[in-house]
Structures are given as C-alpha cells and as structure tokens.
Write a structure and sequence with these properties.
By secondary structure, the chain is an all-alpha fold. It is built from 20 helices and two strands. The protein has a domain of 210 residues. The mean pLDDT is 89.
Amino acid sequence: MTSSDMLALMPLMVLVGGSVLVLLAGAIKPGGYLYWLAGVLILAAMIWCLLIPVDAVMPGLAITSFSRFFELFLNSAGLIALLLASAYNRRRGITGEEYPATILFALAGMGVACAATDLLMIFLGLEAFTFAFYILVAIKRDSANGGEAGLKYLLNGTLSAAILAMGMALVYAAGGTIKLAELASASGAQEPIFLAGGCLILLGIAFKLSLVPAHLWTADVYQGAPAPVTALLSTASKGASLVALLLLLPLLAGWNGLHNILWLLALLSMLAGNLAALVQKNLKRMLAWSSVGQMGYIALALVAAPAGGSRASVFYMVIYVAAGLGAFGTISVLSDENERETVEDYRGMGYSNPLAGASLAVAMFSLAGIPPAAGFMAKFAVFSAALRGGEFTLALVGILSALVAVFFYLRVVVSLYMKPQAVPLETTRKPNSAEIVALLVPVIVIVILGIYPEPLLELLEKIMI
C-alpha cells in the first residue's frame, strides 16, 4: 500500500480506529464525553475528506470524488444522529461506550460500501453497518419494544444477508470474477445463472431500502428502536444501500428484465407505503410506512436511469435524508422519559417548542413535496426523469400517490399548530445546544436546496459514475 493509498483511506481508518478507541476509553473511564469524542472523530474524517481529497485505487476499493461525496454525506447524518442521541440516551439510562462506538463502526461500513469495486467489499460494507444496527435497535436492554424490534430486524436481516450472498455467489459462478467492472462487461451476463444471481442481489438490496415486498420489518423496527437510532437507520443506511445498488445495476444493464423488476418495485412501494401510512396514528409507524413510499420514488428514478434518473435518485435521497433527520430528530428532542407515540401527542408543540415544531413541520412539507421545501424539487427531478424516459404510467401513479401522501403529512402540521396543547407548557422540555444544532442543520439544508438546488445537481452531474 502506497502513501497515496494511506492518505485516501485515512477517513475510513479514523472511523474504524475511533470505534476501537471509544470502546477502550469507555472501559477505562465511562461517561458522556464518549459521545463528544466520537463526534470529534467523525468531524475529523469529514475534514480530511474535504481538505485532502486524494484519489486511489486498490484491491476492492476505489476512493474517488464519488465515494468521498457519499462519505461526507453519510458522516454528516451520523454526526447529527450522535448529537441527538447524547441527551436522549442520558434521559433513558442508555449508558456505556457501546452506542457511540457502534455508530462509528456503522459509518465505516457505509463508507466501504460506497467505495467498493467488487462484490466482496460491497457485501462486507453492507453487512457491517447492518450488523451495527442489530445492536443499536435493541440497545435499551430493558425495553420490550426494543427487544422485539431488534429480533425482527435480526431475523429479517440475516435472511436478507443470505439472499444477497447467494446472489453474489451465483454471479461469481457465472462471471468467474468478483470485480464489478469485469462483471459488467462479462460475456456471460445473459446466462440464466447470472440473471438468477442478479435477481437475488436486487431482493437483498430491496430489504435494505424497504422496498416492497421486502418491507414488512420497517414499521415495527422504526417504532421499537430509540428515536436517534431510527433517525440514522431510516436515512444514512438507505443512502449507503442506494449507492451499493447504483454500483451493482451496471451488471444487469443489458437485461430487459431489470426494467420490469424495478418498475414493479416502484409501483408496489409507492402504493403500499402511502396507502398504509394513511391509517397510521403512531407517528413513527406513519413515517416508517411513508419511507416505503419515498423509496418507491427513488426506484421510479432508477427505472428512468437512461434519462438522468440515477442523478435524480441521489438528489432525492439527499433531501429525504435531511427530512428524515428533521422528523426523527424532533421526536428525539420532544420525547421525555416516554416516547410521544401518536400524532395527537404533538398537539400545540409548534408553540410550546418553536424550534422543534418548525423542524418537524419543515420536514413534513419536504416529504409531502410542498414548495419551497426541497422535497418539491426532489419530486420534480424524479418525475421529470420518468417522463423523459417514457414512463408515463408509473409517473402518473407516483404523482397521484404523492397527492395522497399530502394528507397524512399535513395532519402532523395541523396537530402542531392548529390543535390545543396536549400537555402543560411548563412540562415540555427544551432542546440543549447539541440538539439545537441537530435540528437546525436539516432545516437549513431543506430550505436552501428548495430555493437553490443547482449547485448540488451540478456536483452530482460531475461525480456520478
């Protein structure tokens, strides 16, 4: 390994080494400072990516502007989730060094998945952060809901990992290599065993993205996990999974069946997610089902990949991550000793806690696609790509399902500002400085990208592979 390779890998090495460092520091002297130590390490990795942007290609990994962008993006989400977790975990008695160390490990796995150049590294990256979430979802050991959510996620996740591994094994058997570039140009790409492997890979990734039919775990896990964990699971993990899918799709680019599979995934996810969210009274379950629909819009963009859909899918994911962090961040901040479960529990919160209420309202506007929130631009980019690609039926279904979704998103805003306070004003907790930062950043991103999205779109145009 050359010095250039070492410089390029340094952000990942900081995260992996930092995970071990936090574990050792916690064993010597436990305390809340471990969250700040982990945050400093994440920030150091991000600064390194910005100030020392070294490209390198090595066995299994390629550090490029593409992978660096996603590493910065996902680490930013991880840092916000860590800021949210510090006070949240303290209120609930979730102590120890395991939480911040596992966050670092998860971010390292996401970074590997985004920089992978072969099947093995993609699998290791995906399963590394998935394994971390097995721990994080059930981190509160005395919580029955958390234990149930962790078990459901573990069982579904191990099945997904087995399907993904089997698919990669079949692709390797047909192609004779694990390198993505060679598999994409392999002469055996149309062999039945290769196509069977590709379909299993798509099913394994569909689990990570909560696409129908691999979505049934989503609502239970989102509801049972601690709110800051759900914030990261629902956003950054899906961002890393989308990057892995973008890296894998060229393997099946010459197969006509790929279009039909993505078409069905998009259609079923948009319909099932938004219709199921309509009847949810629990806010976290509503957001979980709506995330299924949101991932359907991303699948719609991938259907229209030849017409610019790949760039639209990444643009949509960036804005979805900001909105998800804003929504689940508000749930984290407003939760006291008990979670606020239903939408009705947030009545009047827009007045008793203006910042948290505004954060949740802006997130809802963005998810609903109401201008000037960035979600409008994201949906415009996706539907424009679909129409350019000739996917008129799917685009129409997407537009209609998005109109349906406006109802349950705005129901939250109505509860925040148009219904009387559910609890006395003096009992509503106020966010601390870390939580204020964690709420402000997504709101600022949503507003700026809603008004001026061109710089991000131009950047994506340059780095997309």
